[in-house]
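[step 3/7] inverse_fold.run input=structure_tokens len=236
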């Protein structure tokens, strides 16, 4: 396998976790061709940490949110395959190799995901919405750190919605499915997802944006059904 892979890492004040995330990228059994760290206006030592890795391209922007950072990474990247990792997550060594192998075998798939296990940061509380089994079982990861996509995915589905500050990733997955692109899963744990008190998932706005994304998805399905002469009985 010799396909070009671009890895994009959006960062905002991530100095506490960024180094382990980058180390997990450079410990891959199949190394990416480029690693782009898009700094979203950090005021801590994140830029210095990113620049300390010789294989990293650092890109700075004013603080505009993770969606804008991911989008800038997509537009600046060169590879036909794109992967993301959040600043506080950790990849297992075969992540890129196994997901690339999957997409090369399944040419009709625009993207694939994988399994993950959550890791509770010392001193942090388990959020009520996250079941205890998430820390002991491997579960499907519907997160940017799990996403491995062909570049065409962003041409067909579009980029991340920069109006959403916390749920742009979920919105992207909804839009992909609404366009008829089903999720594909590499049934192997390839991510350790860190849970800590600063996670965006703790932000009440996250649930509001997620609900709004669900409603928009239902609206798109209704419009498509009506256009085909059908009907929808889904209530919001």
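[step 3/7] decode complete -> sequence:
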């Amino acid at each position: 396998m010799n396909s070009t892979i671009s890895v994009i890492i959006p960062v905002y004040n991530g100095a506490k976790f960024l180094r382990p995330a980058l180390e997990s990228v450079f410990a891959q059994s199949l190394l990416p061709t480029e690693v782009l760290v898009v700094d979203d206006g950090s005021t801590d030592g994140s830029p210095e940490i990113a620049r300390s890795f010789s294989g990293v391209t650092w890109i700075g922007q004013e603080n505009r949110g993770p969606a804008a950072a991911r989008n800038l990474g997509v537009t600046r990247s060169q590879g036909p395959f794109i992967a993301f990792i959040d600043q506080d997550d950790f990849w297992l060594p075969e992540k890129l190799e196994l997901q690339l192998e999957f997409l090369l075998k399944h040419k009709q798939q625009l993207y694939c995901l994988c399994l993950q296990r959550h890791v509770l940061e010392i001193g942090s509380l388990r959020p009520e919405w996250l079941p205890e089994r998430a820390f002991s079982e491997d579960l499907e990861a519907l997160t940017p750190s799990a996403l491995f996509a062909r570049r065409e995915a962003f041409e067909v589905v579009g980029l991340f919605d920069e109006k959403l500050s916390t749920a742009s990733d979920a919105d992207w997955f909804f839009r992909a499915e609404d366009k008829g692109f089903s999720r594909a899963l590499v049934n192997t744990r390839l991510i350790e997802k860190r849970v800590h008190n600063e996670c965006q998932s703790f932000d009440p706005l996250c649930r509001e944006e997620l609900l709004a994304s669900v409603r928009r998805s239902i609206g798109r399905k209704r419009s498509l059904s009506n256009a085909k002469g059908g009907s929808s009985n889904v209530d919001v």
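[step 4/7] annotate
Residues 40 and 64 are 6 Å apart (CA to CA).
Strands lie at 5-11, 34-40, 56-61, 81-84, 89-91, 111-120, 139-141, 148-150, 185-195.
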